[in-house]
Amino acid sequence: MKQTIRSKHIVTHEGIRAGVIRIEDQRIGSIESYDYSEAAGEQIDAADLFVLPGLIDSHVHINEPGRTAWEGFETATRAGAAGGYTCLIDMPLNCIPSTATVDALQKKRDTFRGKAHTDLAFWGAVVPGNVDEIIPLAREGVRGFKCFLTHPGTDEFEMVTKADLRRAMPKVAETGLPLLAHAEVPGPMIDASAALDATGADWTRYATYLQSRPEEAELEAIRILIDLCREYRCRTHIVHLSAAAALHELEDARRERLPVTVETCPHYLFFDAESIPDRATQFKCAPPIRGSSNRDALWQGLRDRTIDLIATDHSPCPPEMKCFNVGSFRSAWGGISSLSVSLPAVWTEASRRGFVITDVVRWMSEAPARLAGIDSRKGRIAAGFDADLVLFDPNAEFTVDAGRLHFRHPFTPYAGKRLRGKVKSVMLRGSICFAEGRFQGCPGGVEVFTCPG
Questions:
Q1: Rounded Cα gap, residues 320 and 387, in angstroms
Q2: The pTM is what?
Q3: Which run of H or E residues covers position 31?
């Protein structure tokens, strides 16, 4: 089927241009001049809307199989599509079983078929005892490996020690794939929590939770990872950077030409600790949202390109796990749901700070595709790439109505926030999957590794 999309604002990796995107057989054929016309096929006039490449979220906890009551492929991909995402890369936890073996990966593949409104890819796990599974998982198509340097919150996925990493990183390096690390170590957090308890600290106060996860926990973990990256030359990716104090050491690692990359998340860029109310456990995540000066420094890290990309760390749970009735930050699950609103949340703050839409596309499309090794077909508007396209109004404003969100449990700290930028429609490999608030057709998502062609 042939299609064309005409727009005055096509966002390519070379800049913004007026033109006509020609689509054939699920791929972009070419970008023609604005006055190009073709008699055959469907013709879409996007007028003044911006056409972006489909967003790629490289950090999503879909939780299926095993914890579908928390989220699931159908609801997560619906939320993703509504937010402008055309590919989600699923973390190896909090599903049961964790994606630490080839058998577990196959169970995940069997589960998602016929449910996905976006394309998908999968991260494998590095946990104690699965070193022999690393090469087989890579051969079976995982896009990299995730590990935790502290307890991850569920018992099915174990944290790794430095000794575990010494065994695993040479194997990961052999695959050429990245090791993604939750960079906090437990020691500073254990000490901080003990000191808080000794003084009778109130765990319904956000300030208590923030003190319980000090910056030093991130800094110490990142130093370990940089040292091991230097030793093994394993591609190393720091997920959800919260502590801007680590940026200087990460810059030094780049100057050494170490293969280290970094992501942060919309919630660290949008919210600040000073404005989080006590008992508001919908804001709890790990690492925590820090102060406004820290937020400003993270934005500077994006400007300096020390931070490569923005990923959501969409980590949902049932409402009762947030302990809204008691408001305890100690007891509540740590995770923020944001798939449907991350693009406007980022654009609201980015545009206010002088960034442009090509910056957002680099952070949320191009760089995640590169991290996952799918950048030969995803993350750009260019000839030969999948026709994953988002029609976006950068000037439209709206107030987030949690009841109209699409993830399984529609609560989020963004509820009631006024955001700038609205996704009008989304095309997945040439087929419209979401338009004007409605989903179109049957779920057509496939695994990127096994896409036809």
A1: 40
A2: 0.97
A3: strand 27-32
